[in-house]
Amino acid sequence: MIHWKKIWCAVLLLAALTGLAACGSHEPAPAMSADAFRQALVGKTWTLERIVNREFDVDPPMTLQFTADGKVAGFGGCNNFTGTYTLDGREIAFGPMASTRKSCGPAQDEREYTFLTFLAKVRSAEIEEDELKLSTEGMNSMTLTSGSSGLLW
Predict the structure, then answer these.
(1) 60 cis-preceded (ω within 30 degrees of 0)
(2) Which parts of 24-105 fold into alpha helices (H)?
(3) What percent of the chain is helix, strand and coil (3-state, nearest 5)?
(4) Phi and psi for 62 in degrees, rounded to 5?
(5) 36-69 tens-digit pLDDT
(6) Has this prediction a pTM greater than 0.90?
(7) Backbone φ, ψ for residue 149 (5° rounding)
(8) More confident residue, 147 or 49
């Protein structure tokens, strides 16, 4: 005599175990060291994609470049700028920026002003692959891409 109840319980148990095995345990990637984070940040041209929900797909692109010695330079769409930054873990702060002073019309001038003003408010940074996310204390964020593969973590 077949014990359908036992077979049914065995099938259910096997299905449950298969489902659990498929889930696996996904350990979070280890935190990147401060030196590795700085290396991922430096030596690339980061192109502005968006600030909060506003897209910045403009020509010419707005950019940022970081050096290992705490300097930052970029292009705001009309003017070049330079300044300093400090990095402590994932906390980042930009010093005052010096910029050329030409005007390129109301629309470009406004986009550049938004970009530089937002940089002054940035307090943290995250990098994932080729994307840099700079965030303010209020958790508004600016997203830039490097166009090349960065470190994965």
Answers:
(1) yes
(2) 34-41
(3) 30, 35, 40
(4) -90, 130
(5) 899 999 999 999 999 999 999 889 999 999 999 9
(6) no
(7) -65, 130
(8) 49
